[in-house]
């Protein structure tokens, strides 16, 4: 529900790129305008912000300075959609100005920054929401219910394997995500979603992580390289060639605005200085004794995941596909296999919309929800911290070739 005394949530947006301009910009304004008023936009790139504002169809004032925006507009809520390593700065400044925050995932990229946010939230008494949209996907909701109902007894271990295809996966290697200092590697940037799902499903947090990572396809592995696709001499022979001019949204958001900050959207995926992994795995031991084996591959011919919970009385198994070179039925199948009792097939209609349909439900929860939160899907700073710290532990484990406890990161 909108706050008492006003008709709508007065929301300001910082970071008007793809996620800010789309999910938290145009889509929010188009679908949630009865509950949300966009009161200001902020971005360091004025040209990108102006293009995004036009696409959103709002007259909200534009700022390149965040503190000036907070002071002049006094929003109730700030939505943070800037690159990952900058989130903490905006979150803490907003909290200190008495403003609640919705931040895109990962909440931030290091243990120090996570502690800074948790301290600021405690000190100011304001609230941070982290946008873990996958918790709201109908298949995830059903699995959570089965686990709460103890359909397979006590969970003892989990197999969780996520696949990014050569379109989506490659995108992380084209821009700022490709450097660990910006994204914390995909163990933080992407796997924060998956580690959060595990924490939420299991109602626990990891104690120790042992991980491996390698760069096998992108970066220095490329057979050739160029500065960026648009002017690359190898465009005719490169499977990863991205024709940015063919996508009006990307072209508007990045092409002309790149003159302002040099941020090109089609940088070469074979740049030699890329320092994140495309192949990752981790063994995770949870505080409640559950063991999880996790992997993330970023150059696959399929997009989606395989997930199984093994319990004392059976197994829950799901394979959810987002994109693959064959046709899947328009429903996802959860297999509930009980020891000595055979299988029950549970069909969940495939939900249209971003992140298996999670994006819409997340916006409902944040801006419309008056139905409570029985499955505890709304995620705060604590959840944001525990999932990103799992990624930080994994990245540390790869670099230092040793198991890493989450406690050691927090101390
Ligand atoms: N929840 C999800 O499923 C999901 C999906 C996509 C992206 N995201 C997250 O959204 C965030 C943004 O991703 P994106 O793909 O839109 O990135 P992007 O690069 O398209 O946009 C980032 C924007 O931030 C602006 N910016 C950079 N530094 C700034 C600063 N110091 N002050 C103000 N503005 C600044 C840039 O100019 C740009 O407009 C990331 O944290 C990403 O992880 C989440």
Report what the structure shows.
The protein has 411 residues and is of the alpha/beta class. The chain folds into three domains: 9-133, Rossmann fold (3-Layer(aba) Sandwich), CATH 3.40.50.720; 134-218 and 274-354 and 378-410, Dihydrodipicolinate Reductase, domain 2 (2-Layer Sandwich); 228-261, no CATH class. The protein is 34% helix and 25% strand. The chain has 15 helices and 16 strands. The strands form two sheets. The chain has a nine-stranded mixed beta sheet. A seven-stranded mixed beta sheet has the order 3-2-1-4-5-6-15, with helices on both faces. β11 (303-311) and β12 form a beta hairpin. The chain is globular. The relative contact order is 0.17. The mean pLDDT is 95. The chain binds nicotinamide-adenine-dinucleotide. Nicotinamide-adenine-dinucleotide binds next to α1. Nicotinamide-adenine-dinucleotide (NAD) is lined by residues 14-20, 42-45, 48, 81-84, 86, 104-105, 131, 133, 189, 355.
């Amino acid at each position: 529900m909108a706050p008492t005394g006003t008709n709508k949530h007065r929301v300001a947006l910082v970071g008007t790129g793809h996620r800010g301009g789309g999910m938290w910009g145009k889509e929010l304004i188009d679908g949630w305008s009865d509950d949300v008023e966009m009161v200001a936009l902020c971005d360091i790139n004025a040209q990108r912000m102006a293009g995004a504002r036009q696409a959103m169809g709002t007259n909200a004032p534009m700022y390149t300075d965040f503190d000036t925006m907070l002071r002049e507009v006094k929003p109730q809520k700030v939505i943070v959609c800037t690159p990952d390593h900058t989130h903490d700065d905006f979150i803490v400044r907003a909290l200190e100005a008495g403003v609640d925050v919705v931040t895109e995932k990962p909440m931030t990229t290091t243990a120090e920054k996570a502690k800074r946010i948790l301290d600021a939230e405690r000190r100011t008494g304001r609230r941070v929401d982290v946008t873990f949209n996958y918790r709201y996907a109908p298949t995830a909701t059903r699995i959570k219910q089965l686990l709460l109902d103890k359909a397979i007894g006590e969970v003892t271990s989990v197999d969780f394997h996520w696949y990014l295809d050569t379109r989506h996966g490659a995108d992380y290697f084209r821009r700022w995500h490709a450097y660990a200092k910006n994204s914390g590697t995909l163990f933080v940037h992407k796997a924060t979603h998956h580690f959060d799902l595990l924490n939420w499903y299991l109602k626990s947090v990891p104690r120790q992580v042992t991980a491996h990572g390698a760069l096998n396809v992108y970066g220095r592995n490329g057979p050739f390289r160029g500065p960026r696709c648009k002017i690359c001499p190898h465009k005719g022979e490169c499977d990863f060639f991205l024709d940015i001019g063919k996508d009006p949204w990307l072209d508007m958001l990045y092409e002309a605005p790149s003159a302002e900050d040099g941020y090109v959207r089609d940088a070469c995926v074979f740049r030699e200085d890329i320092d994140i992994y495309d192949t990752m795995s981790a063994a995770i031991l949870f505080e409640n004794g559950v063991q999880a084996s996790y992997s993330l591959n970023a150059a696959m011919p399929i997009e989606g995941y395989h997930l199984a919970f093994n319990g004392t009385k059976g197994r829950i198994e799901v394979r959810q596909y987002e994109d693959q070179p064959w046709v899947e039925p328009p429903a996802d199948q959860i297999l509930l296999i009980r020891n000595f009792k055979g299988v029950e097939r549970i069909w969940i209609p495939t939900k249209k919309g971003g992140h298996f349909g999670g994006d819409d439900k997340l916006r409902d929860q944040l801006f419309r929800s008056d139905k409570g939160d029985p499955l505890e899907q709304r995620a705060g700073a604590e959840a944001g911290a525990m999932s990103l710290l799992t990624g930080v532990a994994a990245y540390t484990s790869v670099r230092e070739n040793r198991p890493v406890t989450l406690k050691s990161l927090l101390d």
